[in-house]
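By convention, the token line describes the chain's fold. To illustrate:
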Amino acid sequence: MKALVIGAGIGGMSTAAALKQQGIECEIFEAVKEIKPVGAALSIWSNGVKCMNHLGMGHIMDSLGGPMHNLAYHDGISGAVMTQFSLRPLVESVGERPCPVSRADLQSQMIDWWGRENIQFGKRLEKVEQDDHGVTAYFTDGSVATGDMMIAADGARSVVREHVIGFQTERRYAGYVNWNGLVEINEDIAPADQWTTFVGEGKRVSIMPIAGGRFYFFFDVPLPTGLEEDRTTLVSDLKGYFKDWAKPVQVLINAINPDTTNRIEIHDIDPFDTLVKDRIALLGDSAHSTTPDIGQGGCSALEDAVVLGQCFAKTKNIQSALKQYEEKRRFRVKDLVLKARKRCDVTHGKNMQETQAWYDELRQEKGDNIIAGLHNTIVGGPLA
């Protein structure tokens, strides 16, 4: 049995690992000739780390995961602590730690684990066809590949999605712009073992430790879509958006390198129920493109892969296994997309009264409520 895996991102590589465990041959096709991930880093929460362990790649998390032991929110203007607490109770309750990681390093190490020579790069998918016997992939370079099934992990702008669900989807602008990158750890910005977030005015500045003595940082600002900004104005733009914010925020802005900082308009896609059509399945962002507001984008792709492998462990009938995968995942991923959307709106001031109420709650928070929310999301995964 052979699967065509479209995409060599986190979803595609974890899919290949999961199917390999079930004795299924995989051919992996990646559109770009050279991997250049969008986004400097990402949060792999405990459910995602468990998936990496299950897939045989836990050592990658051990080497890349930063020492994120505590969590704190600060008032963005005054810098005052709103809440600060240990994540140990969360780790103890779910049995695994969270791992903020470099996105580029994670993808690179997953590719190296599989074997870079076993991935076909520069293969941009143009169209797909399927019949009772298998699937055919047509690429823009004129090449063709055939297999018994296809797993489309080809991202938020998926070519395969319309074939599976029967209609074109529209990306929805979430209402804010995100700048993200990496800087050397500096405790004038934040403690080296803590996820630190400054909030105010519907804006957010967040700092997480990753391996290699680096902070992953991101700035969120509610803005209209389509503003003309570029790297030459990046620092001055951020200084304007965060004028009069606390000193650690100013230290961070002065430390960033505009040439390695990403600026992204954040989008998601309305959830849909159809993840499978006959021998073709959607996985990762192609199936559930979400905002990053609850840190579950990469985790949910890893979960998809684990569940897919579990389904093929029960049956080698392709249609049956893929339908089981769809049934097990469609409600979970819809819930994550909508949770992220709700958190996005509150965090970024869609209704400033609700956002202010959240700020007031943070000042009373001892950690129990936030940990309970994180716990519920994590244990909803397939390896709870």
User: Anything to note?
Assistant: The first helix runs from residue 10 to 21. The chain has a mean pLDDT of 97.
